[in-house]
Amino acid sequence: MKLVIKIVLLFILAIFIAIMSGYGNGHVILLVSKYRLDLSFSTLLLVILVIYVILHYTATFFVSIYNMPRGIRRYRQNATIVKSRNYFNMATNSYFQQEYQKAYNSALKSISQDVSTDNKLPVLLLAVDAINLMNEDNTKTSVKLDKLVNKLSTNEERKFVFNELSKINKTKNNKLYMEILTKLGY
């Protein structure tokens, strides 16, 4: 609808300019050294308008080229976040369907994809509970916990997760939480 209104306004403006240019008897003379250019006033206005439109679209083109890397970066970050959330949804569904190995694997993929530290904690807790419910021997559990801790890339993430797990461990007192806290080492 906006496009139709813009086109109608453009036609009205064109008709108005055509009518007004018939009444104008203005004359413009441009002198540059030994050259002389005689134009009617309406032709001069039309030339100025065309130059403005060309400069405007040229500037818009270069600005969009300049901003293109930022747009690509934003698109990739959004795609990564969506992918991470899809893995988290798969992990949650698998967890509640009692498919704990699949939940653990999806949680690992979600942690490695996500860029936000806040989103990693719920995924980590889901993975730890899935490990706990798999009822495997201690060496397999330790290896899985190592993989989980290694997915936390920065010290800031590790410290954040350590602090949050410490709060949870005070209420649950779970041996897996204690083990992962020692692996984080803060």
Structural class: mainly alpha
What is the mean predicted local confidence, pLDDT? 80
The strand count comes to 2
Spatial arrangement of strands, main beta sheet: 1-2
Task: Explain this structure.
The protein is mainly alpha-helical and 186 residues long. It is 81% helix and 6% strand. The protein has 7 helices and 2 strands; from the N terminus they run H-E-E-H-H-H-H-H-H. A two-stranded antiparallel sheet has the order 1-2. Helix 4 runs antiparallel to helix 5. The longest helix has 56 residues, at 41-96. The protein is rod-shaped and about 95 Å long. The two termini are 60 Å apart. The model has no long low-confidence stretch (mean pLDDT 80).
Compose a concise summary of this entry:
This protein has 186 residues and is mainly alpha-helical. Helix content is 81%, strand content 6%. Strands 1-2 form a two-stranded antiparallel ribbon.
Give the topology.
Elements: H1 2-23, E1 27-32, E2 35-40, H2 41-96, H3 100-113, H4 117-134, H5 138-150, H6 155-172, H7 175-184
Antiparallel strand pairs: 1-2
Key features?
186 residues; mainly alpha
